[in-house]
Each structure stands twice: as structure tokens, then as C-alpha cells.
Amino acid sequence: MQVAERTARPVRSSSLAIVVAALGYFVDIFDLLLFAIVRVDSLKSLGVAQDQLKPVGLWLDNFLQVTGLVVGGIAWGILADRRGRLSVLFGSILTYSLANILNAFIADVPNAGAGAALHAIGLGSAVNQYGLLRFVAGFGLAGELGAGVTLVAELVSAKRRGVATTLIATIGVLGAVAAFGVTRLVDWRTAYLIGGGMGLALLTLRIGVVESGMFEAVRRKPNLGRGSFRSLLHPPARLLRYLCIIVAAVPIWYCIGILVKYCDAIGRSLGMPESALPTPGAAIMWAYIGLALGDLASGLLSQLIGSRRGALWIFHGLTALAVVLYFTVASGSLTAFYACACAVGFASGYWAVFVTVAAESFGTNLRATAATSAPNFVRWSAAGSALLWTTGERLLGGGAAAPWQSAAIVGAILVPLAMLAVFLLPETFGRDLDFEES
């Protein structure tokens, strides 16, 4: 009986960690995509002019929020390797939950009395408040996925690891679908309150989660350079491994950050009539339904064929095909556009395999730093993709067709680079994670 109890205890611990990580990622995606879904409605209600919706949206989302993500990814990753995975699971969700709750109360304030102090630091306008809170929310959101995947990867067996991370990613991306549903029922301010409230409620579930035994063992060892971000950059072979992991996933956020979030601008550029333009909220919902199915398929495929690299290559090929369909077939009708958005989501749904590779590629002393920062550098790449997109528009003369032509060129650059990055990565399927980086 005692042996059975000792065997059941680790299984219960890892199962709870999987549930908590999956729900945490669900809330993470809910809050991360909420701005993209309510971008037009919220900015219009704050007085932003129609012709400024795209540039202001790019600034708040593809620059400030993703910059918060990459800064937070480094900070939370270092903390997870130095103080423990659980400290990040609590700290990150508290940060982004409070930031999203505050998003519901942004407003222009008079430049007098107490409001004068806010104007003095540039926060007198609602748009500037929005920007600051999207940065803070991004900073908090950065720690959720990496810490959760690292903890689960270290708690479950090598045989179950791919299935566990696949479940986390599949359940998590459905947060975008839930966010779209919520915004159809309530206004954008209430949606932010709901997102923040869900995060705070999730804190109570995390109380029973145990720390990783691998981390506890490493913490007792001296001079292992735990959480040293600089150690990811040297020696060159380790830096190359880290960069290839990031580049391999960049097409995901090109697809989401450009093709899906700004589908209205691209649809217009493709010649779709104003009365039948796709909306970002609906496109995000269909893309994330595809992403959930794609994450499930890619994760199970990597288990079936016994190769993370093989699954990544197959889904990169599907991404290239889906992007071609997006630019050639989608403009035929609104139904065709949303079908292509779903296909783009499915094809780029290899996030589950990507985060698993990020966790499996590094030793316990650097694992959380790598697995937390890499996904957020990928998210940050949305800023680079947006810069390439808008620069390409200008170089193409800024005509009516320039937005879709530039977006297509960006895709033609990023997908082959991602395939090359996978070629340079070592296979990690079935790897024993109980090791440290020198």
C-alpha cells in the first residue's frame, strides 16, 4: 500500500501541474489576444481617428506589448532558474491580471489638480495609459508559458512529456476563442475585467503545485550559473542552438501578428469590398481554432514519428501552403477568408512542439531561462515582421495592393529561414532532462 501511495503521489503532482499550466496558458492567451480583438472598438471609443487605427494598434500591440513580453521573458526566465518555477507561476499571473484589470479604467484626465501629475509624466491621455498597461501586461504574460512547460517537462517522464506539453498548448490557445466569445457578449472594458479576474482566480489553484525535483537538486549545487542569460549567448554553439529555436517559430507570429490581426487591412488590399471585409476578432477566433487543432496534431505527430524536427518540417511545409492559399483564394468571399485563416492557424500550430524543443534543448540550470525567453523573442518578432511589412509597403510605392504584396514577401523570407533553423537543430525527442549546462 505504501509503495502504491508513493507511486501515485508523483503522478498526482504532475497531473495537477499539467492542469494548472494548461489553464494558466489559457488565461495567458485570453489576455494576450484580447487587445487584438477589441483593438478597433476600444481605440474608437477613446477617440482615435479611423486612419490612425492601424498605426496606433501596431504601436500598442506589435511594439509595446511584445517589448514587454521579451523583457519579461528574460526576467521571469532568470527568476525561474534562480528562485524556482513556482515563484514565476505566481508572480507572472498576478502582474498581468492586475494590469488587465486596470485596462478597464483608462480614460483621459483633465490637466488640472491631481490630473496634472499624470500629464507631467505623459499619462494624461487614455491612449498613453493603454500603452503603459499593455507593456506591463506583456511583461507579466511573458512568464506563464515557459515556467509552466519547464515545470511539467521536469515532472513527467520522457515518454509522456510530448503529450503533456501538447495538452498545455492545445487547451491554452483556446483562450483566444473564449476571448472572442466574451467580447461578443460584453463591452471591451468588461472583457478586460473578466480576463484579469480569471487570472486572480487561477492563483488559488496553484497552491497545491509542487516544485520540480530536478530544480531542487540543482539549487543545492554550487557555481552552476543558474539563470545566467549571458550563458545562453556563449559558447557560440549554444548561442546558435538558442537562435535556431527562436527562428524556427517566427512564422507563427508572422501569421498571427500580420495575416490574422490585420486581416481587415490586407483584405482591403486584396480588393475585398468594404461591406464584406473580415474582422480581426472573427479571424483570430477561426485562426485559433485551427491553432488548437494544429498544436494537437503536431504534438501527437512528433510522438508518433519519434522526431520533433520531423514534425516541425512538416508543419513548416503546411505553413507555406496555407500562406499561398491566403493570398490567392481568401479574397474570393468572407467564408473563404475565414476558412483560410483557420488553415493558416492549423499550419502554424506547431507551438506545442516548439516549446517542447525549447525545454528539452537546455540543461536544468538554464532550462527555464531558455524556455521562457525563447517564446517571447518569437512573439517580439511580430514587431520585426510589422516593420518589414510597413517598410515593404513604402518601397512598393504605397499603392492599394502594396499591403498584401509586402506581407507576402515577408512570408516568403521567414518560412524558408525557419526551415533552415530546424535543419541546424539537434533532435531532442526522448532526451533525459536531468543534466546541466557547463
How does this model look, in words?
The chain has 438 residues and is mostly helical. The protein has one domain (9-210, 228-424): Growth Hormone, Chain: A, CATH 1.20.1250. The chain contains 17 helices and no strands. The radius of gyration is 21 Å and the shape is globular. The model is unreliable at 1-9 (pLDDT under 50).
Oligomeric composition of the shown chains: single chain
Portion in beta strands = under 5%
Query: Low-confidence spans: pLDDT under 50, at least 5 residues?
Result: 1-9
The total count of strands amounts to 0
General form: globular
Return the CATH topology: Growth Hormone, Chain: A
Structural class: mainly alpha
Task: Let me know the CATH homologous superfamily.
Answer: MFS general substrate transporter like domains
Proportion of residues in helical segments: over 70%
- Compute the separation of the termini in Å: 41 Å
- How large is the radius of gyration? 21 Å
Number of domains: 1
Largest sheet: none
Which CATH C-level class is it?
Mainly Alpha
Report the total helices: 17
CATH architecture designation:
Up-down Bundle
Mean pLDDT: 90
Query: How would you spell out the order of helices and strands?
Result: HHHHHHHHHHHHHHHHH
Keywords:
single chain, 438 residues, mainly alpha, Growth Hormone, Chain: A, 17 helices, globular, disordered N terminus
